[in-house]
Specification:
Number of helices: 9
Order of helices and strands: EEEEEEEEHHEEHHHHHHH
CATH superfamily of the largest domain: Regulatory protein AraC
Radius of gyration: 20 Å
Distance between the termini: 36 Å
Helix content: 25-40%
CATH architecture of the largest domain: Sandwich
Strand content: 15-25%
Shape: globular
Number of strands: 10
Mean pLDDT: 85
CATH class of the largest domain: Mainly Beta
Largest sheet: 10 strands, mixed
Structural class: alpha+beta
Number of domains: 2
């Protein structure tokens, strides 16, 4: 992992009273890490290719292609590129914010939203007609963002240092099959203590938290076109069928249908045997 903030060849544009939403293309080096920072405006960050990991306000989000994480103004956050990534940052003035200003979330980016973002990113013309078009595109985008379906991709992060070590190790290796008893020996706490901390700090059991992590990572890998069999193996499932069953329990449909319904079919296998 590298830390490099010099990858923006074109200066990013902050929102203004005249243009309360701006769209910026970001093409960072692979696996680059952007240290904690904050903005005076709200932000939507969404990958066009690859995935990103954002941590803010005690949560971590694994954001796959064509999903976007909402970060309100003044909330400190960091950013990690998961491999090679191309993404957009959408800056929005607080006074027109379409989503709550006190909480982060993840939303789906529809085909219409994506087209509007691209239109706004190219809206640099002068004159009354260009300004009117920018206002119309911005108004429609704010409406679409407001009504976009949310996705439960957030992972609550603990304060306890022992639980922090466990959760970070799982984020680095979601396929780990270690039990809570195994982790207890590694992080210096009893199994009972860790189980209690998961519930008291994260409001989830160890198994539920790990499954949420694997689901988020699965969406990232499937969005990159990885075959479902490979995704299942990388996430520690004994078979593709076991992975598909878990996915269906969580989302109500198998992974192939989930991705097709969201207009982002994977380039790999599309069957769920």
């Amino acid at each position: 992992m590298q830390t490099d903030l010099s990858f923006d060849a074109i200066p990013r544009r902050a929102p203004t009273a005249e243009l309360p939403m701006t769209v910026n293309l970001r093409c960072p080096p692979a696996d680059v890490y952007v240290p904690p920072h904050r903005h005076d405006w709200a932000q939507l960050a969404y990958p066009l290719r690859g995935g990103i990991r954002i941590s803010a306000a005690g949560m971590t989000w694994l954001v796959p292609a064509l999903r976007a994480v909402w970060i309100p103004p003044h909330i400190e956050h960091d950013l990690l590129m998961l491999g090679e990534v191309e993404f957009r940052t959408v800056y929005i003035a607080p006074e027109v914010a379409p989503l709550p200003l006190d909480a982060c979330s993840v939303i789906e980016v529809s085909d219409l939203m994506r087209a509007l973002f691209e239109a706004l990113s190219e809206a640099d013309g002068d004159g009354q007609e260009a300004s009117q078009r920018q206002r119309q595109v911005t108004a429609l985008l704010l409406t679409e963002i407001r009504r976009a379906p949310p996705l439960s991709l957030g992972l609550p992060m603990p304060n306890d240092r022992r639980l922090q070590a466990l959760c970070q190790a799982l984020i680095d290796d979601p396929a780990s099959a270690l039990s809570l008893a195994d982790w207890a020996a590694r992080v210096g706490a009893s199994e009972r203590t860790l189980a209690r901390l998961f519930v008291s700090e994260l409001k989830l059991s160890f198994g539920a938290w790990r499954q949420q992590l694997r689901l988020a990572r699965a969406l990232d890998l499937i969005g990159r076109g990885r075959p479902y069999g490979e995704v299942a193996a990388e996430l520690g499932y004994a078979s593709q069928a076991a992975f598909s069953a878990m996915f269906k329990r969580a989302f109500g449909v198998p992974p192939g249908r989930f991705m097709q319904e969201r207009s982002t079919p994977p380039a790999g296998e599309l069957h769920d045997d």
